[in-house]
From TrEMBL, chain A:
It comes from the Bacteria. This is Cupredoxin domain-containing protein. It holds the Pfam family Cupredoxin_1. The lineage of its organism: Bacteria, Pseudomonadati, Pseudomonadota, Gammaproteobacteria, Pseudomonadales. The keyword Signal applies. SUPFAM superfamilies: Cupredoxins. It comes from Pseudomonas veronii. Residues 1-18 form the signal peptide.
Amino acid sequence: MRRALLLGSLLLSGAALAAPLPTYELTLQDGHFIPPQLTVKAGERFKIVLHNLGQGPAEFESTPLRVEKVLSPGVTTFVVIHPLTPGLYPFFDEFNPQLPEGSILAQ
Amino acid sequence: MNQSMFIVWRESVEALLVIGILQVWISRQTAHSRLGRFLWAGVVLGLFCSAGLAGLMLWAGEAMTGPQGEWLQAALTLLASGLMVQMVFWMHRHAATLKNTLVREADERLARQGGWGVLLLALLAVSREGSETVVFLYGAGARLQGPALSLFAIGGVLGLVLAWLTVLLLRSTRRFISWSLFFAFSEALLLLLGGALLVAAVDRISGQLLAMDMPEWVYSSFGESRWNSSALLSDSHGLGALLADFVGYRAAPSLVTVLVLLGYWLWVGNGLRRSRHTA
């Protein structure tokens, strides 16, 4: 019950980040990813700050990373990814599916 | 052109599928003209909502990509999932009442009870994916000029036509199978989609919880993968990706995802069994 209350109050107050998470930067530019591959540490939560510097909107999407996010041009936002087991995790821009995917290498 | 065609097809096929199933089912009811109005009102409202949501994404991009937008989308996805299930149960219940009561009485009640559900489901089905399509079309439309823009527009229209043809093709299977089998398939499809939407909502909510300052058990149950079957069937490409979109398959799910999907099917299975008893 206390946990439920705690969870509820945190949700309502839109709790801010306390402990700083390992953070990586990723730029989206009309379907291209800069850098094309991010190397992250396996087994810990981490944050990706996404910048859409392209002229058009982008949809950062990856089922294994459990992310689907539409970014209009000029938007900067972030996603927090669950701890990954070592491996390669592809992501792509759903609005530019013909371009090569990007990936996260967890090691 | 290929690109806009493919994207519009993929974004619209789900909504058209839901509308197609509802429309066929409604056309078989005696209250069809009234229910039909609810359905088409839902579609039209859905188109307006698509434009509205797309406008929010484009002009309030920072807010919509932030937590508020994520919670909003999670809520819409959850609602859509619940409505899919409610619709299937409603169809079942109605099949049962038709056998027992006067047709007219049943139909009036049907139109009253189900109409708003039909409207809301059509609205959500159209506006959820529709808003993304609008953002995509607007963004590319603003960037392209001259012949490239025409080709892009033609591609978009072709995508919509293709999605329509896909649904017609699925509907034409009706000729080779009985109505009851056709509706059994339709219901199964709606329930599977309902499960997929539920998993998508859990993903979105989990992403938000992971970003907050939470006790460790929240991170581990909402975040950590419990197994990894991507060597057998990856959820990023081909069949696995299709199953992810339409069934809620995840190659490396969290504990909460597994429990929620399991609970969903137990609950749905139990509900269907019960409605068969009363039928």
